[in-house]
Design brief:
Structural class: alpha/beta
Largest sheet: 8 strands, mixed
Order of helices and strands: HEEEHHEHEHEHHEHEH
Shape: globular
Distance between the termini: 63 Å
Strand order of the largest sheet: 1-2-4-3-5-6-7-8
Helix content: 25-40%
């Protein structure tokens, strides 16, 4: 009996893995001369003979590379349903900018160039903007739109949930002055690093989705961004629903955005 049980257990252990893979890797940033921790989620049956689309997921202020896994424990299953790779870097409280006042903060360069290069060399990705999307929550929502709009040769789709899409009403919040300087002393930095100032860059083929809860403190700035995009005839999906600045909202929102990105990758978006 013991021998039979041993053989059964051995057979189970030797079966090929069928679960999603969650890796934590270190990615070196030449521009900042440091390693940055990054979570990578691979779909079930990850096949080195196939190239996969990639969704980059950015955390909020005070978060790190583990945020999205903590916020949405079923994220690996969601990634598997859409058959994509997810990448979640730890970008501190950078707001995903290259700081104009601190040359050691180069997170725009890191995400848009260094991280992309590392992931494309390390995993079986489809290395083209038609197979890359970027989004995030709160600070990361600002980052998703900032990087997506400013690097349309890299990302074909971008998004935000509960994003700080206009930073100007919040000059003393969330360590933004560490990257931009005091608003009273460097107003041009604040004007130039808000999403509205980048809308002139948007090309017709960029696919954009963003949303915000109606009781969120960022709701008004998201509404204004939506209205400005409508005025400029920038095609986008915008969703507002009851909810605030909390985990359950972001977990629900990500399901919608992953479906949007999956349709983008498959060429089935209606616009």
């Amino acid at each position: 009996m013991k021998k039979v049980l041993f053989l059964i257990l051995t057979a189970i252990i030797m079966l090929p893995a069928t679960a999603q893979t969650v890796d934590t890797i270190s990615v070196y940033s030449p521009s900042m001369d440091k390693d940055i921790r990054t979570v990578v989620i691979l779909p079930d049956g990850y096949d080195k003979g196939k190239d996969y689309p990639v969704v980059y997921l950015l955390h909020g202020h005070g978060g790190d590379h583990k945020d999205w896994i903590n916020i949405k424990p079923d994220l690996p299953e969601a990634i598997n349903r859409h058959n994509v790779i997810a990448v979640c870097p730890d970008c501190a409280v950078s707001w995903y900018w290259d700081s104009p006042v601190d040359s050691t903060l180069r997170y725009e360069t890191f995400v848009s160039t260094e991280l992309i290069k590392d992931i494309d060399s390390r995993y079986k990705t489809k290395a083209d903007k038609s197979a890359r999307a970027i989004t995030g929550l709160s600070m990361g929502g600002q980052g998703g739109l900032w990087l997506g709009i400013r690097h349309q040769d890299t990302f074909g789709a971008c998004g935000s949930t509960s994003g700080g899409v206009d930073i100007r009403p919040f000059p003393d919040n969330w360590h933004m002055k560490n990257s931009l300087g005091e608003y009273s002393e460097h107003p041009e930095n604040w004007e130039n690093h808000t999403i509205a100032s980048q809308l002139y860059l948007v090309k017709p083929d960029l696919r954009i989705i963003f949303d915000c809860g109606t009781s969120d403190f960022f709701y008004d700035v998201n509404e204004r961004l939506h209205n400005e995009m409508v005025y400029r005839n920038i095609k986008h999906d915008y969703i507002s629903r009851p909810g605030g600045h909390y985990w359950s909202y972001w977990a629900n929102s990500l399901d919608t955005q992953l479906l949007f990105f999956s349709k983008f990758f498959n060429g089935t978006l209606p616009w």
